[in-house]
Write a structure and sequence with these properties.
205 residues; mainly alpha; globular
Length: 205
């Protein structure tokens, strides 16, 4: 593994990172919290987390791996727009990781339930910043000859939708559950595109 090239590792990160995130996100949402729990209802979420404290999530690891792949995309492209975007992706990822840590603390001890408000706020902020960064990266690399421009524009549009859902859900808690569902669909599309781009990146090595 010490001799693996930057493109191969970056491509693997683009493939494995979002898949790990997706799998453990759905384990957390469906297996731990449940589809009938409104994420805006802190008491209900805390109760669900503490009732299923044996289940854990590895989304943070997947997010960090994915971030490496996105940064590699931006570095390989060398354009100013994606260079700016990867800074937003970094900050958004840090926010998500902190939120995941707070959520894990709640799952381990009901007395930490007061952390949920902070975790939820950081999660929303991270999602907004990450979506903006991802949008900039996609637009920045879209002109490269190794990127399908039409598909990149579609993914950029999905990133705009993700950004809007993050803003709306963050400022209007009554819509949070619906906005998170839409955001989950957006992330599935991001994952499919990331796998495609990751395979192409490995082939360019």
């Amino acid at each position: 593994m010490g001799t693996i090239s930057a493109n191969k590792l970056g491509g693997l990160a683009l493939i494995a990172g979002p898949v790990v995130c997706l799998v453990f996100y759905f384990i957390q949402q469906l297996g731990v919290i449940g589809t009938d729990v409104d994420p805006a209802d802190g008491n209900a979420v805390v109760a669900a987390l503490t009732a299923n404290s044996t289940l854990t999530t590895l989304t943070s690891i997947g997010l960090i791996v994915l971030m490496h792949g996105i940064i590699r995309l931006a570095v390989e492209s060398g354009d100013a727009l994606s260079s700016l975007g990867m800074k937003f992706v970094f900050v958004g990822t840090v926010g998500w990781v902190i939120s995941a840590g707070l959520t894990a603390a709640i799952g381990g001890d009901v007395n930490n339930g007061g952390l949920y408000g902070g975790a939820s706020g950081i999660n929303q902020f991270g999602g907004i910043v990450w979506s903006l960064g991802f949008l900039l990266v996609v637009l920045g690399i879209s002109a490269k000859d190794y990127i399908n421009q039409n598909v990149a524009y579609i993914v950029a549009l999905v990133a705009v939708v993700s950004l809007v859902t993050g803003v709306v859900g963050g400022f209007e808690s009554s819509t949070l559950q619906t906005m998170q569902m839409i955001g989950g669909i957006c992330y599935i599309i991001f994952t499919l595109w990331s796998i495609w781009v990751g395979k192409d990146m490995m082939a360019r090595d």
